[in-house]
Design goal:
By secondary structure, this protein is mostly helical. It has a single domain (about 5-190), classed as Orthogonal Bundle (Cytochrome Bc1 Complex, Chain D, domain 2). The protein has 8 helices and no strands. The longest helix is centred in the first third of the chain and has 41 residues, at about 1-40. About 20% of the residues are buried. The model is unreliable at about 1-5 and about 5-25 (pLDDT under 50). The chain binds heme C (2 copies). One heme C (HEC) binds near residues 34, 41 and 53.
Length: about 190
């Protein structure tokens, strides 16, 4: 009997030791596993499977990522693809996933051909998106997103199809289609 008690308390002690030692790594693994689902489209090295329609999320601004996941989940931002995915995530995981992707490095790519400075509009964007367009709370990084994604996002704000921000539709409506296109081309080459 004595032997058994010692044996069990030994196992039990070991169990606690393992649980305490392993718990944090295990939590990180869990986010890593959930993030693998995202890699199918957003890329396992941060380069999206189709950059024209899928934005880069590696190294994107943290609070922006978090807000988008929440907006997709509660319908403030519509996306037939992202809404069901975000609905499948637990509230508790949104922040962890945002932290996970924000901590990654924006994917490197061959230097694109520099585009001419757009005739109108970019100075005002820099107040929020930062002078180098690398983003800052709460405005997302725009530098290096694809021309097609940028122009589509700008158009969606202008048409009030994307209304999860009160300022952006007004700014985008103040520009013509041609001006938006020139800005998107410039930003995509940064
Ligand atoms: C089946 C493809 C697919 C998968 C899987 C996917 N996404 Fe997306 N994601 C998209 C597309 C397409 C968009 C652009 C939606 C739009 O513009 O309305 C997007 C947009 C986003 C955005 C907004 C970024 C921005 O710049 O506005 C975030 C954040 C995001 N996804 C996070 C995730 C996370 C986190 C996962 C995994 C849990 C994930 N996505 C899985 C296709 C996907
Ligand atoms: C007052 C601050 C502010 C100004 C000025 C501003 N933006 Fe934004 N912009 C934001 C914020 C905040 C968001 C994120 C909105 C959200 O929650 O989806 C955003 C989102 C965007 C997006 C969507 C990015 C993505 O990944 O989907 C684009 C594109 C964009 N802005 C372009 C511009 C351009 C171009 C200008 C200048 C003509 C501009 N913005 C001016 C604050 C600003």
């Amino acid at each position: 009997m004595f032997m058994f008690t010692r044996f069990f308390s030994g196992i039990f002690g070991l169990g606690i030791g393992l649980a305490v030692g392993i718990a944090p790594a295990h939590a990180a693994d869990e986010i890593e596993t959930k993030a693998q689902l995202c890699a199918a489209c957003h890329g396992d090295k941060g380069v999206p499977a189709d950059p024209k329609t899928i934005p880069v999320i590696w190294g994107q601004e943290r609070s922006y990522l978090m807000k988008q996941l929440r907006d997709f989940r509660n319908g403030e931002r519509n996306s037939a693809v992202m809404s069901p995915i975000a609905k499948g995530l637990a509230e508790d995981d949104l922040r962890k996933i945002a932290v996970y992707f924000a901590a990654k490095t924006w994917p490197a790519r061959p230097a694109p051909a520099k585009q001419p400075l757009p005739p109108k509009g970019i100075a005002q964007c820099q107040a929020c998106h930062q002078p180098n367009f690398q983003g800052g709370m709460p405005a997302p990084r725009l530098a290096g997103l694809s021309y097609e994604y940028l122009v589509a996002a700008m158009r969606a704000f202008a048409a009030e199809q994307r209304t999860n921000n009160l300022d952006m539709p007004k700014f985008m409506q103040a520009l013509t289609d041609r001006e938006r296109s020139a800005i998107a081309r410039y930003l995509s080459a940064l």
